[in-house]
Amino acid sequence: MAHDTIFALSSGAPPAGIAVVRVSGPAAGDALCALAGGLPESRRAVARTLRDESGEELDRALMLWLPGPGTATGEDIAELHLHGGRAVVASVERALDALPGLRAAAPGEFTRRAFANGRIDLAEAEGLAELLEAETEFQRRSALALAGGALSKQAAAWRDAVLGLSAEVEAMLDFSDEEDAAELPSAFSVRVATLADDLRAWLDRPRAMMLREGYRIVLAGPPNAGKSTLFNALLESEAAITSPIAGTTRDVLERSVAMAGIPFTFVDTAGLRDSAIEDDAIEAIGIARAREQLDRADCVLWLGEEGQGPAGAWEIDAKADDAARQAKGKDAIRLSARTGLGMDVLRARLVSHARDAMPAPGEVALNDRQSSLLAEAATALAGTSGESDPLILAERLRLARSAFDRLLGRASTEDMLDALFGRFCIGK
Fold first, then answer.
1. Is 351:263 a contact under the CB 8 Å cutoff?
2. Which fold has domain 5-116?
3. CA-to-CA distance for 402 and 373, rounded, in angstroms?
4. Superfamily, domain 125-205+365-409
5. For residues 237-250, average pLDDT
6. C-alpha distances in angstroms, 63 versus 35, 36, 51, 212?
7. What is the tens place of the pLDDT at every residue in 360-395?
8. Closest Cα to residue 189, out of 374, 378, 381?
9. 211-357: which CATH topology?
10. pTM score, whole prediction
């Protein structure tokens, strides 16, 4: 519960050079007094000997006393910077657990307290979750922008603008019974339209899902076209079994990799042909799954006969080292995954293509929840177009404000909060 005092290891798993144990809550100061014999000067690191309730020495450590509310969680916080051995950390955690009013923290509980105490809003908490899960440079920079409040500041500005518009409508409603009742200014509809256009521009941005899952490249073509060999070459790993025997790949194989800081998901598929081998149900399933992957692809590398791939597919002349092959036209990318010929050209084109489709570096990428709420606000604002009834206008603007409130976490369900903070590790 929120009034409990919680503790957890907030650094990496031991063994390590230093282990940081964080304590947050009303009894954080009492915990320092119990283990170190008193409180140090606030916000100043001091070295103390830590002892358990029996007086046995646990460690010689640095300790910090950070009184609330100006802390990460908005509560009193104590930090113990220990020697990072497993036994040291375990002994300090046992000593803390033995103190009255203290308990081990649940996953994400420190961040949830920061949200509950107004230190961060929901969009910033989502950004922190994305930052902890970031594996590529693009993911890191987008998450930093979100965690740093870029979307929160913009949403607050949108909300303030809607609040101002609502005030004008409410003023008109207050005087609606008078003969010289006020009318909305001529610029009112222009301001609403400008705000709606701004929201639509944000909704047109690339989404966080692409950053999270990677730019999706599907390798497709008939059996024995060299898809798996190219797949392995792109990954620089023997992820797929290759063989001169046609039909070796029977199912979809996915692998994620980062190139130039950009996340990619490469997908190897079963060979496509009009009809599977007679009575081969497994191959038929593999072909069906391969066709499904074509619909999900951000880009298809087509290794089959020129012009026979899906619309927009890149033509790949995959066996450029084989003089006996039937070469593709001048627009095809010529390469040999076996010798490495042309692979650098393909990688460079993929990186350039994906970079253009990804959010700009440091730009916030909306997740599904955020984009849904912005779309809801944009729809509410669009509903004011041509509307003259002030009651309907007021309701449309209220719906837009409500969407912004939910975006920032001013109105959130417990189930949604549980799902979000459950993504965090213990100690965060």
1. no
2. Gyrase A; domain 2 (3.30.1360)
3. 9
4. tRNA modification GTPase MnmE domain 2 (1.20.120.430)
5. 51
6. 10, 9, 13, 37
7. 878 899 999 999 999 999 999 999 888 878 889 999
8. 381
9. Rossmann fold (3.40.50)
10. 0.76
